[in-house]
Specification:
Elements: H1 5-25, H2 36-42, E1 45-57, H3 61-64, E2 65-66, E3 69-70, H4 74-79, E4 81-93, E5 102-108, E6 124-132, E7 137-139, E8 146-148, H5 154-166, E9 171-174, H6 183-188, E10 208-211, H7 217-222, E11 223-227, E12 234-238, H8 242-249
Parallel strand pairs: 5-7, 9-10
Antiparallel strand pairs: 1-4, 1-6, 2-3, 4-5, 6-7, 6-8, 11-12
Helix pairs in contact: 2-5
Length: about 260
Amino acid sequence: MELTWCSKWSTFTGCVLIWTCLLKIAQSCTCLPKHPQQHYCESDYAIRATVIDSHVVWPSADHIVRNGAVSLSSDVIHSAERAYKVIVSQVYKGDDIHRNQVMYLYTPYQEILCGIGHLDKGMQFLFMGSFDKMLGKHSFNLCNYHHKWSEVTPKQVEGLRHAYKNNCHVKIVTCGIDASCSNEQVELISVPLETTTWHSKDTEQHSVCQWDPWKGTCQLYEAICKKHHHTGHVYWDLSPDYELCQASLYPGVIDS
């Protein structure tokens, strides 16, 4: 069943709500929202994989057994991890990973420590995260990007295949939280930037792509931050579905 933009928006809103709740509940888990391109560029790996199984990895027996008795103290629980066994379908980043590889992805056991508590077996996801070379362990948590593959858009796939990697040198600035967004760039987002002549006294304004997580859902799914090969300006490269997304989420904002 194909997802509507409203259902995708609900998924994104849920993530923002989780992030907000975690800010209130536990200072140890503070995840500021990021664009998928930021996640990709900052991650050690990015893969499409299917969840096969999962289990809890507890600390060694020496840590659990104290004075001859089993102890599940807060220290023990905080050290525990959940290991997701997955089979890799596609590798978008990560030289140590290959297709059809069966591997484990580790996440904190406790959700208040940014752990991912439940992923359905048989479900395919896009995973991004970190790799500990010393331990040979691939990890991810709530602050990393993980998303159902069925909800990944063609524009995001374009980014995963080459565009994100080729544009990791450009900067995306998250605005609308600590700092306000520039109205000028927000307006320019909705026009075909490849044919737009930039007129601005403030060159710094066009050296970054602004992303407002409260209003930029369509940029999340349907835009890649790139540097214009002629002008050198940084801009949002929009998919053909961008305006459809905008019209679905913000009826009346875009003229028909």
